[in-house]
Amino acid sequence: MAEERWRTARDPAPFRPIRDLDDMRRRFDEDVVRPVMHAIWERIPEEAKTWAPPLDVYEKAETLIIKAELPGLKREDIDVYVTEDTLTIKGEKKRESSVKNEDYYRSEALYGAFYRTINLPYAVDTKNIDALYEDGILRITLQRMAGSKIVILR
After folding, report:
1. How confident is the model at residue 154 (pLDDT cuts 50, 70, 90)?
2. Per-residue pLDDT tens for 94-130?
3. Please, which residues have CB within 8 angstroms of residue 79's CB and are 6 or more apart in sequence?
4. How far apart are CA 110 and CA 45, in angstroms?
5. What was the pLDDT predicted at 130?
6. Residue 141 near residue 110, CB atoms below 8 Å
7. Are 27 and 90 in contact (CB under 8 A)?
8. What's the rounded Cα separation, in Å, for the pair 10 and 12?
9. In sequence order, what are the residues at sequence separation of 6 or more whose Cβ sits closer than 8 angstroms to the Cβ of residue 71?
10. Distance in angstroms (rounded) separating the CA atoms of residues 8 and 13
11. In angstroms, rounded to a whole number, what is the distance separating the alpha carbons of residues 111 and 92?
12. DSSP, res 135
């Protein structure tokens, strides 16, 4: 029979702060944060559960370029509307129907309808628009309207 060794106050368990803190954080997330966040999320009306894609907007030689990150979408799921001084991008990113909510360990990807409108810094030619969607990036190229002045956006 193997001899058991008892720990005494002089022989404490090894102090492992990183592992212990990680374990405490994980248990707190599982026992407190996840149930509370789930309860809050369930009370939000469906129409309010939207997200907005991040954008880059810059100018190159009288051309305004807008890049929107839209990973996981199909081209036909995206609509783009342009007026002289406004750009609107909208669509919907659908969750895989073969995976149930209970099967997830973590879900950080954003799903659902999105709608993003930005004011453009100057009037653009609405008859001369180029849009390309490739590798999850929507790139919209707009030509500056002749004689239009820059409006400082804040």
Report:
1. very low
2. 877 767 767 777 777 777 788 889 999 888 988 889 9
3. 88, 89, 90, 91
4. 16
5. 92
6. no
7. no
8. 6
9. 136
10. 9
11. 7
12. T
E strands, the chain, where? 55-60, 63-69, 78-82, 86-93, 112-119, 124-134, 137-144
Strand partners, 58: 65
- Count CB atoms within 10 A of the CB of residue 138: 21
Residue burial 92-117, b: 16+ Cβ < 10 Å; e: rest: ebeeeeeeeeeeeeeeeeeeeebebe
pLDDT digits (tens, 9 = 90+) for 21-44: 888 889 998 899 888 888 887 887
Choose among 154, 55, 41, 14: nearest CA to 104.
Answer: 41
